[in-house]
Amino acid sequence: MATLYRNYDRAGLDVQYNARATVPDIQPILKKYANDSAEARRTLDCALDVPFGGHADELLDIFPAAGGARGAPVFVFIHGGYWRLLSKDDSSGMAPAFTQAGAVVVAVNYSLAPAVTLDRIVDQNRRALAWIHRHIAEYGGDPSRIHVCGSSAGGHLVGALLSGGWHAGYEVPPGVIRGAAPLSGLFDLRPLVHTHVNEWMRMSEADAIRNSPALQLPQAGCPLVVSYGETETAEFKRQSDDYLAAWLERGFPGRYVPMPGTNHFDIVLSLNDPHSPLTRAIFEQMGLAPAPHSR
Known about the structure:
This protein has 295 residues and is α/β, with parallel strands linked by helices. Helices cover 33% and strands 16% of the residues. The strands form two sheets. A six-stranded mixed β-sheet has the order 1-2-4-3-5-6, with helices on both faces.
C-alpha cells in the first residue's frame, strides 16, 4: 500500500491510532471510570447537570473545594473516547483527590460524533470554558486560576482551548487558562484522515488542519504538563512529544511526566491518587498540595 503519512500506509496508521488495541480488555477500565465518577457524585458536594448552553448535551458537573473554600483554583476535565464515546458521567473520578486538595472540579459534557462535527465539539468546549470563566466564582472557584486537563480526544480538546485566535469571539481573555495537562493527546489530526477514525469523524484535510492544535499555537503559553501511558503506540507518544517540543520552542513553560506501568486508558485513573507523579505535577502547577491525611 502507498505511504500516506510519516512512512505509514493505511494499515500502519490504523494500528498506530487504534488505542483500544493496546489493552487486552478495555471494559473493566471503562467500568471503573463510571463507578468512580458515580461514587464522587454520591459522596461529594456537587452541582450536577449545570447547563452551559442551550443543547441538551451542554452540561457540567461541578464539585466545590472541600470545606466550602472560596477563591479555589479550578480543575476542568474533558473526557476522551475518540470524540464519539463517554460523557461527563464517566469523568469525575478524580474529584475526591482534587477537591480534598483545595480545588473546584468541573467535568465537561459535549455532543459526540458522528452526530456532530469536530468543529461543533471544539465550539462546545470553548463555550464551556467561557461559561466557567463567567460563573465559577458562584461555586467557590477563582476565574483567574482555571486549569484544564483531558485525555486522548480530551487532550486534543485541551489543545483546542490552548490554541490562539478564538478568545475574542467567546468573550474570554487570551490568558483564561493558567495551566494545562493534556494526556495522550492528538495535536496534529492530519494522519487521522487516513484511518478508521475518519469513519465517524468524517474530516476533510481542511477540517483536520483547522482543528489541529499543533498548527494553531498561541502567542503566549501557560505552564504545560504532558503525559501518556507507557504502552501507548509510537504515534500517540510522538504526538505529545512533538507538541511539547513546539511549546518549549516558543519559550513557553512545559514538561513531560513519565507514568510507568500505565496504558492509554488507565492513566486517567491515576488522577485520583494524590501521590502519583502526574497528580503531583498538576497539583504543583495549580499551587496545591495533597491533603495531609490522604494516602
